[in-house]
Input
Amino acid sequence: MKALITGAGGFLGQHLVKFLKKKDCEIYNLGYKPVKNCFHFPLSNLSDRITIKKTVAKIKPDYLFHLAGSANTSSDIVECFSVNTFFAEYLLDAINYANLQHHTKIVIVGTAAEYGPINEDQLPISESMLPKPETLYGISKLAQTNLASSWQDLKNLLVIIRPFNIIGSNMPKHLALGSFFEQINSITDKGVLRTGNLNTERDFIDAVDVVHIMWKLVNNPKAYGEIINLCTGVPVSMKVIVDYLIKHSKRTIKLETERNRIKENDIKLHYGDNSKLKRLIGEYEFISWRKTISGVIDFYE
Output
């Protein structure tokens, strides 16, 4: 089996590469930099449609996992849409060019940010909710979803997923928990952990669960053409997680709230409805957030 991945060197991509390696897949990375355990096909410009077409035609992948994306809030609109929207269009066009649309199984990774601000009476968030994103990240990812959905209308083998808050080893520091781990890891004995608003509850899902579920979905014909939430359906308090993290770090740490880490209009409670997911893959035992946090602590140590 051949699997082509974009974003293979990213947080989720590293977990996917590890998973596919155990499946004895030949793994191909299309991107800026080489990635361990992958055959590298360089792409210096995401708008280079010729290179994208040639790469897909040469590999003839059985699977395409499009993980590449950017949540960088400093990105301008052109850069954001280039990564989060148009790159997917060029990949799907390349699949057509190579006449692989009825062969290659595809996962397009969106985000829960596509739903936009949510009131508590709208919880849990289901796929039937009308997306109303306000951030450039959410808007550009929703545009990707719409493009992919339109392409899939031809009954191609494509699944669109909307992960909620992914956690696990190698979390990037632009994520709140990733920042907390990095700060704590820099403290030898005593120190300060700088945070934003911890009076929030979020739906956290382990990256290992995400890649396992992606594999189940992409190999399930009933999932093709669907937009599917990847979430546990259970909100967890950020304060509870931080307290657990500090306790198990075996360090003396004082919490300090910084205004520049507090988001405007931060939603207090946010979690998803995974009933559609369960209808497609059956009952699933999610890794507990405690086990994930403990694993990350061990990873950093």
User: Anything to note?
Assistant: The chain has two domains: 2-166+205-230, 168-202+234-270+287-300. The longest helix spans residues 77-97. The chain has a mean pLDDT of 94.
